[in-house]
Amino acid sequence: MFFATAPAAFPASLRRPAYGHSGRTVERFLNDALLSARQSGTAYTQDETSFTLSLDVPGITKEHLRITIDSAVVRIQSKDDAPRRYRAAYEFPQEVDSALSEAKLENGVLTLKLAKKVPVDSSVELSIQ
User: Fold this and answer.
1) What pLDDT band is residue 121 in, cutting at 50, 70 and 90?
2) If you placed Cys at 97, which of 8, 36, 75, 115 could pair as Cys (CB 3.0 to 4.6 Å)?
3) Could you give phi then psi for residue 23, rounded to 5 degrees?
4) In b/e form, how buried is each residue of 50-72, taking b as 16+ CB within 10 angstroms?
5) Contact by Cβ (8 Å): 62, 107
6) Given a cut of 50, is residue 37 above it in pLDDT?
7) What string of H, E and C letters represents the secondary structure of 55-72?
8) Where are the alpha helices (H) located in the chain, listed in sequence order?
9) Per the database record, which ranges form the CS domain (predicted)?
């Protein structure tokens, strides 16, 4: 079968795809579905002073976990000698104070109470000459 190309009725600068964002919608849907399936054992709450994050990590002891806090990003991963592999990273809307934060592992549930860092006003008044 032979198909001939039709001449362009409009210049390329005026043409645009009618459903240009539909591909991203499907991609976003699939990513959200995979993310929710992977993190179904995750609970998140917050109050004025802290974030609380609960994660299901069955089969991993506290000696096999490594938790690092870098500003507003918290990374949780299993060590090399752990019986299971676990790796996750969470970015919070505010910086986390690592000195006041705590972690507890009980019955396969890791609970992180992450203290919010109090924002420091670093503004300086500029004198007018």
Assistant:
1) confident
2) 115
3) -65, -40
4) bbebebebeebeeebbeeebeeb
5) no
6) no
7) EECCCCCHHHEEEEEECC
8) 22-38
9) 37-125
Asked which of 11-15, 55-59, 83-87 is least confident by mean pLDDT, the reply is 11-15
CATH topology of domain 41-115: Immunoglobulin-like (2.60.40)
pLDDT in tens, 18-33: 545 555 666 666 666 5
Residue with tokens 């795809």: 17
**Which residue type occupies 126?**
L
Selection from 116, 112, 109 nearest residue 67 by Cα: 112
What's the 3-state SS for 105-129? EECCEEEEEEEECCCCCCCCCCCCC
The answer to whether residue 113 scores a pLDDT higher than 60 is yes
- Residue 48 is classified by DSSP as S
Is 42's pLDDT higher than 90?
no
Kindly tell me if the per-residue pLDDT of 115 is higher than 60. Answer: yes
Residue 98: in which H helix or E strand, if any?
Answer: strand 96-106
Residue 65: closest CA among 19, 2, 109, 117: 109
